[in-house]
Amino acid sequence: MRDKIDHGKLRQLYDYWDGRRGDRLMPARADLDPVDIPALLPNLILVDVERGARVRFRFRLYGTNVCTIRGADLTGRYIDEDNITALRNPAIASYNRILADRQPVYESHRFHPNDRNVGYYHRLVLPLGEENEVRMLLIGFYREMAAPEYHSTGLD
User: Fold this and answer.
1) Domain boundaries, the chain
2) 113 closest CA partner among 155, 71, 65
3) What pLDDT does 86 receive?
4) Does pLDDT of 154 surpass 80?
């Protein structure tokens, strides 16, 4: 999995998570100490897995850089609420896959904020739990802007 992660800070997060789990499928939330990873904290999201009549995912913590990227603090909100994110359904599908597989998921998506620039979203979702049951998700989220792309006007 580590070799697929195309972002240095997310590789750091994966290494921290991997070291904390030892020989288990995943570490518990109690195994993590924010003091160990201060540079990563602004880009982290913690999601509670709430099991009841149906499984729901509630944002427990939304890092300050993630709030800036999103333009909102989603702490305390559920991902299945209306107008949370345009990627709500794919995110829920990804979270459910992690509940079933109990394995991390890394994704990188290209986006164009305008006609000249290109950027990338990088997201690493790591399961946290006990007795092989996922109880929380630890998410590292980064957005990067690449240099402006050159578009020929046909006049050059």
Assistant:
1) 2-145
2) 71
3) 73
4) no
Q: For the chain, give the longest Cα–Cα distance.
A: 65
The answer on pLDDT for 156 being more than 50 is: no
User: Which residue, chain included where needed, has tokens 């800070």?
Assistant: 9
Q: Per residue in 88-117, pLDDT tens?
A: 888 899 999 999 999 999 998 777 656 666
Q: What span, in angstroms and rounded, lies between the C-alpha atoms of 123 and 120?
A: 10
Written as one letter, the residue type at 14 is Y
- CA separation for the pair 80, 58 (Å, rounded): 9
Q: In CATH, what number does 2-145 get?
A: 3.30.450.20
In 3D, which of 55, 59, 57 has the Cα closest to residue 72? Answer: 59
